[in-house]
Amino acid sequence: MTDQADAIVIGAGHNGLVAANLLVDAGWRVVVLEATAHPGGAIRTADVAAPGFHSDLYSAFYPLGFASPVLTALSLEEHGLRWLRSPSVLSHVLPDGRTATLYTDVQRTAASVDSFAAGDGVAWQQMYDEWLRIGPALVDALFRPFPPVRPAVDLLRALGSSAELIRFLRFAVLPVRRLGEERFGGEGARMLLAGNALHTDLSPDAAISAVFGWLLAMLGQEVGFPVPEGGAERLVDALVARLEARGGEVRCATPVTAVIVRDGRARGVRTAEGDEVRARRAVLAAVPAPILYERLVAGEHLPPRLHTDLKNFEWDNATIKVDWALSGPVPWTDSNVAGSGTVHLGGDMDGLTRYAADLATRTVPSSPFLLFGQMAAADPSRCPAGTEVAWAYTHVPWQAGLSADVVAEQVDRMEAAIEQAAPGFRRRVIGRHVASPQDLERGDPSLVGGAINGGTAALHQQLIFRPVPGLGRPETPVRGLYLASSSAHPGGGVHGGPGANAAAVALRRSRPQGRLKGAGTDWALRRLYR
Predict the structure, then answer these.
(1) What would the DSSP string read from start to end of 94-115?
(2) What was the pLDDT predicted at 263?
(3) Which residues of the chain are in CATH 3.50.50.60 domains?
(4) In which order are the strands placed within the sheet that holds 370-374?
(5) In this predicted model, what pLDDT tens digit does every residue of 2-18 receive, in sequence order?
(6) 3.50.50.60, 3.10.560.10, 3.40.50.970, 3.90.105.10: CATH of 2-37+252-314+453-529
(7) Please, what is the average pLDDT of the chain?
């Protein structure tokens, strides 16, 4: 069977759905082909720990998504999406029991960090004031095709001078440990930054870890860590509803096995059933770069240099995730933690460095750092009244080949870390669901080896180096084929940036004047990959 559309989107994760929505808004006929039985990719909700406990199987809270101009412009609230927030944003519980808590009220956050070192509250307020001045331009730049010329001009204007720009560029490459030492005297503020930096696969001592920690901490300070009411999957439901209302189509359980290339241009795709779906204008691949270039596009259509560069593509760390159904709220020793939808557990700054060193040396950490969520704090509809639906994940080395016994041992360490901060936690567990790295990939084939960010966030694979040295843009060496996944700039996280960038370039290049303007990009790609 042969079908035809203006554009085919491979993958119905949020980036693919964002791209499809933007294309249908331009009047294109769009078909999204998803390999699994459900749209959403790494956004899905299911009762896996116990009936009536709605667990988010992958991602759960979305400060980047809420702040993203991409998702905001889609007006998903008109299609059923409703955002909720916990009373406090997040808490970092240190091994000695002390806790730093981030609130959307900056004065309360300042009081929390000031309890660790006098003066840190004022320093936190100063950092937040800086964010309010330059944050909007930075967020705008983050979600534009590279290079973001207009947002860069706005950022320079917000900074005020070229001297301040140089200072900002230094800040942007700092390790988060160094940023904390330069700006704060106590561990509270330092750990709020470092814990957020470790939402990536970066060490506290790695270049650019500071900017990631600062970005998430400041977004948390400004907008919180919102969650969709009823479960993360409601975000996907809204994207699909919007797409279908405008004539777009999502076909699940339809794996794509090949991109059809003729005369150097993507002409469509072939599915596992042998069907062809032709694309009159573009094919957008919302799949990891290695899957696109090594499995879906035949080697003869790609420059040899690209294959060489792909050998150096680095995945982020693998993940073990646990979901729990609890008979009651988590019994935190520090009551301030009860209101935080997100909790960081398992280390001070040196502990986080040791944890990162274990990962770098391909050792399963004996003292894991945990990202923990208690969803009823924001959304009581997730579980029966008086109970809690919780989850946590930690990282292990990518492709470590973990046995079931090693995974079980690591889950025991995770629960021990929670128990230390919340004695009696284990007695409240009435259901548990464990997802190993292999389980995560089985559920979403884009989570290769349990890597959740589409490739490392390290400096050597950012901007013009993402996914390989090039232009940092959605274009590929095949005309009409665009990379729309988190392997492309601006990378991982639920914000829609890669999908929006791919759609914007596809729309621009489809116009006669766009094709002429794109000739320079084609020339540059040929030069880079030859």
Answers:
(1) -TTS-EEEE-SSHHHHHHHHHT
(2) 93
(3) 2-37+252-314+453-529
(4) 99-102, 88-93, 340-345, 370-374, 388-396, 318-326, 429-435
(5) 689 999 999 999 999 99
(6) 3.50.50.60
(7) 93
Q: Which H or E run contains 252?
A: none
What is the model's pTM? 0.93
- Identify the CA nearest to 199 among candidates 213, 186, 187, 189: 213
Q: How far is it, in rounded angstroms, from Cα 247 to Cα 29?
A: 7
Pick the CATH number of 44-68+84-101+224-229+317-450 from 3.40.50.2300, 3.30.519.10, 2.60.40.10, 3.40.50.10090: 3.30.519.10
User: Quick one: CA dihedral 305, 307, 312, 315, positive or negative?
Assistant: positive
Place of tokens 């090039």: 470
Residue with token string 């950490």: 365
377-402 residue pLDDT tens: 999 999 999 999 999 999 999 988 88
Using CA atoms of 204, 461, 441, 34 in order, give the dihedral in degrees to the nearest 10.
Answer: 140
Tokens of 390: 């919780």
- Please write the tens of the pLDDT for every residue from 249-274: 999 999 999 999 999 999 999 999 99
Q: How long a stretch of residues is the chain?
A: 530
- The helix (run of H) or strand (run of E) holding residue 66 is helix 63-67
